[in-house]
What we know:
By secondary structure, the chain is mostly helical. It has helices spanning 3-23, 30-35, 46-57, 60-73, 75-83, 87-100, 107-115, 117-146, 152-201, 207-211, 220-231, 240-245, 251-280, 289-297, 299-331, 339-359, 364-374, 378-387, 394-415, 421-426, 431-452, and strands at 390-392, 454-457. A two-stranded antiparallel ribbon has the order 1-2. The termini are far apart.
Amino acid sequence: xxxxxxxxxxxxxxxxxxxxxxxxxxxxxxxxxxxxxxxxxxxxxxxxxxxxxxxxxxxxxxxxxxxxxxxxxxxxxxxxxxxxxxxxxxxxxxxxxxxxxxxxxxxxxxxxxxxxxxxxxxxxxxxxxxxxxxxxxxxxxxxxxxxxxxxxxxxxxxxxxxxxxxxxxxxxxxxxxxxxxxxxxxxxxxxxxxxxxxxxxxxxxxxxxxxxxxxxxxxxxxxxxxxxxxxxxxxxxxxxxxxxxxxxxxxxxxxxxxxxxxxxxxxxxxxxxxxxxxxxxxxxxxxxxxxxxxxxxxxxxxxxxxxxxxxxxxxxxxxxxxxxxxxxxxxxxxxxxxxxxxxxxxxxxxxxxxxxxxxxxxxxxxxxxxxxxxxxxxxxxxxxxxxxxxxxxxxxxxxxxxxxxxxxxxxxxxxxxxxxxxxxxxxxxxxxxxxxxxxxxxxxxxxxxxxxxxxxxxxxx
Length: 461
């Protein structure tokens, strides 16, 4: 990044850090730190919850994923990634059933009631991995914005953003995350709107070309859309950031926040993804997305994009840190219910995320695909336990977990080029086709296991 934009990016990062610390009051009670209550003990309102949900799901990795999928696969790739935001609708329904039909205080208590230790153990492991991957992926994007992998600017930017977000998260917990999310929503919306207008005004922009950018109905983008629709029922249940916000306020407020979060976030991610389609239609040679967009729209667009990515990374990470504290202390009961123990959990997860940044994979979509595949064991839970309210043998969950984890691991090995078993056995070549096949196999195995293990309607006390 040239010196002037780099300086402006650095200034934006410093300003965001200062504003965040000024906005966040120190959490004095566990209710504020773990459950987001204000110092006066008031639960968040509908728009605070909505804006928080949107900013935590319009995160740096999502922005780049949507744009890159559009860059390579056209409008189909963008629609595929946007389809994941249907998770707000399925997630809102899941939360409503758990809280107001089954009376669950959190997901872990429901999983333990229905499946015992295998339920809580498998769920907590999945959620823990998901949180670490969120921290890692967003820090990775921050590093890419500031410099090439391994450079001083790359490393310093990652450490700075990690330190700032961890600092104010430890200060105010979930209440801090909710307050800063509202600020970050406003900044992010303005930046994305400016970028979208710049694209519309560009002489190279042709609406018809964007709409017809995925003419092949068996292209990887359309296949990925089917994958997203298969994963959407279970995807929100393994996202602790979304689920945690579903247990904070009253029923009407919660329902409205999930509905508003769906249409707002879907529009924002779709608009940003179209930037990727626009750039992809005009790429030359082996150009990457960021280089093409800068060539088409200029350095001001690159600066706006960089700031948007840093802001969105911060919004997701502070929420992830708040969820790690709640997961470890409240849900898993690994420590005393105190702010100090919550802060210790945040620090440990931050360290794990940093280790993945410097020693893990660089594939941003791999984290989405792998975690979404591993979460497929939750789909039969949603159908049998949450929707139909039927008792199922714990062994059925065990079979579903094994099938989903094996599918996730196999996809990771296949997409990384370590093995070629799926292609050799089925003749399927593209990674997204393999991903769809593995998801369907995991889903079919889990649903069959639950059908066999069905013990009839749950007996009410």
